[in-house]
Amino acid sequence: MQPTSSMNEEFLKKWQMGLQIFHPSIDNTSVHERKKAIKLSADVAMASLRKGTTCWSRALIEKTATEDNFLVRQMLSGIKAEALINKKLPKRTVCHRKIVRRSKKILRRKSKSASEEAAAKAKRLVKRRTQGLRNVVPGGELMSNDVLLLQETLDYIVSLQTQVNVMRSIVDAAEAEIER
Amino acid sequence: MNGAIGGDLLLNCTDMSVLERQRAHLKYFNPSFDSPLAGFFADSSMINGGEMDGYLATAGLNLPMIYGETTVEGDPRMSISPETTLGTGNFKKRKFDTETKDRNEKKKKMNREEVTEEEEEKSKITELNNGSPKSIKKMKNKAKKEENNCSNDSSKVTKELEKTDYIHVRARRGQATDSHSIAERVRREKISERMKFLQDLVPGCDKITGKAGMLDEIINYVQSLQRQIEFLSMKLAVVNPRPDFDMDDIFDKEVIVSTPMTVVPSPEMVHSGYSHEMVNSGYSNEMVNSGYHHVNPMQQAETSSDPLSCFNNGQAPSMWDSYVQNLYGSLGV
What we know:
The complex is a heterodimer of chains A (about 180) and B (about 325). With about 180 residues, chain A is an all-alpha fold. Chain A has helices spanning about 5-20, 30-50, 55-65, 70-80, 95-110, 115-135, 145-180. Chain A contains seven helices and no strands. The longest helix of chain A is centred in the last third of the chain and has 34 residues, at about 145-180. Chain A is elongated. Chain B is mainly α and about 325 residues long. Chain B folds into three domains: about 1-105, no CATH class; about 120-195, no CATH class; about 210-330, no CATH class. Chain B is about 70% helix and about 0% strand. Chain B has helices spanning about 1-5, 5-10, 20-30, 35-50, 55-75, 80-120, 120-130, 135-150, 155-165, 180-200, 210-240, 245-255, 265-270, 275-280, 285-290, 295-305, 320-330. The chains are: A mainly alpha (about 180), B mainly alpha (about 325). At the A-B interface, helix 1, helix 2, helix 6 and helix 7 of A face helix 10, helix 11, helix 12, helix 16 and helix 17 of B.
């Protein structure tokens, strides 16, 4: 499941359309600001590839919109995806603290055998890793179950690979031009 | 009792045999009585024949009801007549038949279950592919069915027969059959399937066994990709701040890029402030080992030494469209 060339093209097209919108604002600025604008546009282009069908893309657009709302809105309207910014994210599930504490107490009361304890330990390790994955994938905290989280992670990784491929090829091309 | 009521009838038809007389009697009381009885007999004979399928089973189940109706419709005083006694005798026989039939059906069901057990693996795969709440529903049905397994009620047997058409997931021997544990099992299978896909996608993940280790590797990979994007965007900002690149070069490179790159973490990266997160989070070793990062220290040094020299492209933004078309043309679209 490697990123396909059609995905690369689509990303490149969207990204460059976005960069064109950014162009006047990043012409005479510092390197850091330019970098920020480039990253922002790349993120939005990547997220807009999925057309709001995945949770992570919506979360990513929302995140970038909080950083620079005006530019993101402009860019999304430039690539004809204005609707993406208003896509709703799933609601965060809130646990009742009292109930959670009580159930933990009940669980602790049971005496466990050695094998059960080992299984519980492995479970805890996996749970911590899953939590880490939630923090890494945009919008991961909102994904209610592990199956959905893994699915979104798959999609996110493919998109990231596309982004890296395209960016790297452009960097290489630019560097080759300098050498000439 | 019978004689008193049928007295006038007996006067009319003295030549008839007892049975014929009784039939006439029945016709007199209830003209439509004959037809269900005939159907009844025909069915019972077929039941005695032994061959059972779904249709016959349901037909047989309707028969007691017919019988009950006829007794209600007919006069209660008729019960003494030879015809009806014959009927009840037959009914008893038939009851016995239905019992044996139930057993047969159960046997058949068991056979079917064995078959499904054999096909279990295949169906599980299809289940996973479907990946819908539908499958859970089916499994719930299945669980219910197994609860009903020991019941003798024939109506339940027919319900089961109807349900057996869409069983897909079954518990293996020794596995729990209640809906919760089956749903949990399906969930776990789905997760393991997704993990398998991730294993294919993430380089270096196929050597690791165990879910925790794999999740670690996935997190590392995602973080390294994110950092790579950060780094590449920084590089782009330094190299070329404008969106109009020379497209021909990009296509030449596009083909090469798909092959994995070697890792050379450069000292420049540390200076430029993009690798400090990497060092802090302790992932630098993994990145060196598994080849996530592609950095050419020479080029990096070159570009960072004079970042302004590269703003040398004099192409106007209006030329953009032709470049894009050029790009797609050379990519073979």
